[in-house]
Amino acid sequence: MAGEDLGQDFDDFDGTSDAPPDSPQYSPKVVKYKTEWKGFTDREITGNRFGGTVSDEGHAGERLNDARREARQNNNAWLSPESSPTFWESKNAHMKGILAGTTKVGTMPDQGTLDLAAPALKVLGDSVTLLGVEGGAWRFKYHGLIKNKRGMEFFAEKLLRDEGVNVTGVRFETGGRVRDMGE
After folding, report:
1. In sequence order, what DSSP letters do the residues of 71-131 get, joined into one string?
2. Which domains does the chain have, with CATH numbers?
3. Which residues of 48-70 are buried (b: 16+ CB within 10 A; e: fewer)?
4. How is the chain split among helix, strand and coil, in percent rounded to 5?
């Protein structure tokens, strides 16, 4: 085996073989299939939820009305301008009078308390806006990063307590934001 030229049978290998087709050495010529691009097929697009095809122009208004009817059944989008306020009032009726979880402005503290808390509010700066104080619970609208919200709540509470303000808790409202942009 040593010194033997093992590649002597493969000197000019082109993928074909002169061996008969029934022998184990037979290697058929490799055919490369390549199809020509003929463009997209001209067929109508089906599968529209509201019936018909996309190219069916005669029933576009009916399909739109069907979509609106279905959306209104599920209390989704596309409510008429008259029914939208009544819908949201009925949806939020259980929250009437509750300020926690909203960015609605509540009762502001008296001027003496604001003067006492002024150094702490100056430290917090533009990252918060005072929404109100209810029984010692201070509510702020928070404009900073959500990932820092919990730590900032504790920091604000400590700042207010250090100034001698009556604080039972601090809550930062974000107006429905649950994560930072880019997360």
Report:
1. HHHTT-S---TTHHHHHHHHHTGGGTT--TTS----PPPPHHHHHHHHHHHHHHGGGEEEE
2. 39-96 (no CATH), 111-173 (3.30.300.130)
3. eeeeeeeeeeeeeeeeeeeeeee
4. 35, 10, 55
Residue carrying structure tokens 């020509």: 36
Nearest C-alpha neighbor of 181 from the set 127, 150, 144, 152 = 144
Type of residue found at 140: F
CA Rg value for the chain: 37
pLDDT tens for each residue of 115-169: 999 999 999 999 999 999 988 889 999 999 999 999 999 999 999 999 999 999 9
Angle of helix 149-162 relative to helix 111-124, nearest 10 degrees, comes to: 130
Place of tokens 């990932």: 147
